Amino acid sequence: MSKASTLDDAFYVLVTGANSGLGLGIGARLIDEFLQTRPQDESLVLIITTRDQRKGDAAIAALGEQLRKVCRKAEKKLPGVSQVLQRRVQLRQERLDLLSLVSVQKLSKKLRDTVPKLDVVICNAGIGGWTGINWLLAFRTILTSWKTSTTWPTFKLSGVGWTTKPQLPPAADGSEREEPPLGEVFCANFFGHYLLGHYLAPLLARRSQTKQALGRLIWTSSLEAYEHTFDIQDIQCLESTEAYESSKRLTDLMAITSVLPATEPHVNKYLDCEQPSEKITKPRIYLSHPGITHTPIMPLILVLDYAWMLVCYISRWLGSQWHVVTVDKGAVAAVWLALAKQSTLDTMEQREGVGKWGSAIDVRGNERVERTEVEGWGWGGEIGERPRKYGRSPYAKTLTPQSKENFVREGEQCWAELEKMRLDWEKRLDEAGVGVSME
Ligand SMILES: NC(=O)c1ccc[n+]([C@@H]2O[C@H](COP(=O)([O-])OP(=O)(O)OC[C@H]3O[C@@H](n4cnc5c(N)ncnc54)[C@H](OP(=O)(O)O)[C@@H]3O)[C@@H](O)[C@H]2O)c1
């Protein structure tokens, strides 16, 4: 690390679920883009989380190899630069199981004790919760409407009613403690990260002495965050036959409304920013999605996995802007949100409104970041905004004042419900003697 760059003013990024698929792609792209775009005196501390040490070691080895690759490339152009670049990146691994609230608390406490600040947290980890595929429907829809059916598929079969293992230990007499069910897909895709964001908010809020950027909490959504899959009465998607899609809709609702006045009291509590001071700034929640990327999220036997990859490439060649296919390209939106100048993000939001940023691609394979329509919010929540021609979901509807009002109201209800749920679980964990104090 260069003299000018102490650990305290290094750029700290946490990426969850970094041993596989997009998480690994995000880590690799982040190293690459950071070294290419940031000044020589800035360094990156990349903290990745995995569920076990073996996966963590493998991910660190893969990211180390990526770093060496970037260095070798740079060395060819500028001899001697490789050592400088190598010193600018520090990799660290941690354990996190989003299905265990205690695991979320333990990691948060450890980071609060050992890290001076966090600039970005990328909430990438997640599960599909699918049990298989309706093959007949898959063949029929792919052959009749290739691009649409491979972008917004209707043929995935979802598990229903899946819950996490008990969060509380048995009572002193060995009996099981009573606890409410916690939806597995909801917890892996949303609630675990929701708690993580809350506990890490003080690290995200620590203002850098030199930079004006806000701490960024980047939530991962999907193109499949359909309005019709979400029911606020079943916020944990326990009864839903589309739990994955429902959890992603919740992500959209809460991320977008997080900057609106209607949710401010909840969000201030969540981000621990009820009493702003000069030393801290309220972090920002940003919303991204990776397009359609070929990853192990849908487990398939090898031959079908290759067939799916081919189907995805064909969709791209047919003009689908969302079939980014590779994890490197799928990572473009999240990495851009992590590294973009604050002024760039602010200007774009002033121009286009707050919205969802997705990874997109052209037929030749050039990736880009593309604003993505959200049902009930449009691209930026502006009534009368001009609909974009490409990349619209089959469920897309023109934004109306009524649909926008419903969106904001539902977002506010979700924030109220999630804050209630967070406090309830914290109390339960504390009473059972397993809650981790953040003091
Ligand atoms: N692939 C796509 O086309 C696509 C599209 C839209 C959105 N996404 C989103 O992108 C994110 C990454 O997905 P992916 O496609 O890269 O899938 P993936 O390859 O299966 O990666 C998922 C990652 O999440 C981790 N994870 C799963 N459950 C976890 C838990 N309980 N606690 C901690 N980590 C956990 C996995 O760890 P293990 O290896 O230990 O299971 C893995 O590292 C997800 O949020 C997904 O919804 C993906």
Automatic annotation (TrEMBL):
Top EC category: oxidoreductase
InterPro entries, per database record: Ergosterol_Biosynth_ERG27, NAD(P)-bd_dom_sf
GO molecular function, one term: 3-beta-hydroxysteroid 3-dehydrogenase (NADP+) activity
PANTHER family on file: 3-KETO-STEROID REDUCTASE ERG27, DEHYDROGENASE
GO biological process: ergosterol biosynthetic process
UniProt keyword Phosphoprotein, yes or no: no
Lineage, top ranks: Eukaryota, Fungi, Dikarya, Ascomycota, Pezizomycotina
Species the sequence originates in: Didymosphaeria variabile
Protein name: 3-keto-steroid reductase
Catalytic activity, EC: 1.1.1.270
ATP-binding is among the record's keywords: no
UniProt entry keywords in alphabetical sequence: Lipid biosynthesis, Lipid metabolism, NADP, Oxidoreductase, Steroid biosynthesis
Cellular component per GO, a single term: endoplasmic reticulum membrane
Similarity comment text for this entry: Belongs to the short-chain dehydrogenases/reductases (SDR) family. ERG27 subfamily.
